[in-house]
Amino acid sequence: MARFVAQRLLRLVGVLLTITVASFFFMHVIPGDPITVRLGEHATPQAVSQLTAQLGLDHPWYVQLLRYLGSAAHGDLGASIFDQQSVTGKLLQYFPATIELGLAAMLVAILVGVPAGVAAAVHRGKGLDAAIMTLVLVGVSIPVFWLGWMLVYLFGVVPDRWHLDLFPISGRLALQYTVSPITHLVILDALLEGNWGAAADGIWHLALPAVTLGTIPVAIIAKMTRSGMLEVLGSDYIRTARAKGLDERAVVLRHGLRNALIPILTVVGLQTGLLLGGAVLTESIFAWPGVGRLAFEAISNRDFPVVNGCILLFAVTFVVVNTIVDLLYAAANPRIRYS
Questions:
Q1: C-alpha of 134 from chain center
Q2: pLDDT, tens digit, for every residue of 141-151?
Q3: 82 near 75, Cβ under 8 Å?
Q4: For a disulfide at 273, which of 56, 127, 166, 318, Cβ 3.0-4.6 Å?
Q5: What 3-state class would DSSP assign to 237?
């Protein structure tokens, strides 16, 4: 186990180094000037020169990269070019919202996708199977930005014409609620305080963004679950279990689903890493204060330190989540051991 963790840590270092170099290079190649964004087009040459030197942007990009790597090795990700706030502070401020949204979206995907895939496999070739697979195809095909705007319009704009407040379309919590930032996860903090009204309001605000973001994962999980279950249900030990007279539900769930968990866990891990990496479109549509929205604004402002900080956070999140999934393989299948 220790060797496995050490290998993953070495891989993480290599991934972070590669991504940092690539992001530095491309951010300096693409058009745009962060100095112009900050000072405006009518800034004097003296002001431009002074700010450029102050931010260290007067050096070649590879010199800036070496300085950045040296600072990052000591835990300093620099300061935002746009507002001079600490990048680490910004990430700590925005990441909890992304965690909350990503986990909620994945919860929706698992609660809908796994039962749908199991039902489709059990009723293979029947009407229910065809209906579920059709919905899966639709779910994968619908663009996230279109679905988000449709949900905003149908559940926010249209009901408002009749003075109905069905779902909020922005933010994490209504203004009348105040929650102490214990974990910075609004719903969890509200529950820890016993503030049930705030917790319910947080879930209410989270509903539409979570459904929007969870649409593609739910389709992929349902398809993978169906595929895995079909392979398992056709195996000899399932036929033996049925021949012994075991209850069909026990055969499907206890013997079938558990042995089909490996590919399902793989997909869940990959999708969770992607969701926690920042759902830029969903967070922008619903004005959700997460890392995806922060990254979008940083790219628009050519804010190199914030962009690089977001990218590093995405990479760390993805590797950590998939390492956890690898460890869960052993729980799902005792024959798997790491040494």
A1: 25
A2: 888 888 888 88
A3: no
A4: 318
A5: helix
Cβ-based neighbour number of residue 184 at 10 Å: 16
**Which amino acid makes up residue 34?**
P
Measured between alpha carbons, how far is 281 from 296 in angstroms, rounded to an integer? 9
What is the Cα–Cα distance from 330 to 321, expressed in whole angstroms? 15
The pair of structure tokens assigned to 194 is 């016993």
- The pair phi, psi for residue 79, each rounded to 5°, is -125, 155
CB atoms within 10 A of CB 157: 11
| DSSP for residue 82 | T
pLDDT tens per residue, range 308-319: 888 888 888 887
Q: Which CATH code of 3.40.50.1820, 3.40.190.10, 3.90.226.10, 1.10.3720.10 fits the domain covering 97-297+307-332?
A: 1.10.3720.10
Other residues' Cβ atoms within 10 Å of the Cβ of residue 247: 11
Phi and psi at residue 86, to the nearest 5°: -65, 135
Question: In the structure encoding, which two tokens stand for residue 93, read together?
Answer: 């401020």
Bridge partners of residue 79, in order along the sequence: 86
Q: In whole angstroms, what is the distance from residue 115 CA to residue 197 CA?
A: 31
Q: How far apart are CA 281 and CA 111, in angstroms?
A: 23
| Three-class DSSP category at 79 | strand
Q: Which helix (H) or strand (E) holds 282?
A: helix 280-285
Long-range contacts of 123-130 (CB under 8 A, 24+ apart): 124/230, 129/226
> Rounded to an integer, what distance in angstroms lies between the CA atom of residue 129 and that of residue 120?
4
Residue 40, helix vs strand vs coil: coil
Q: At which residue do the structure tokens 């690898």 appear?
A: 326
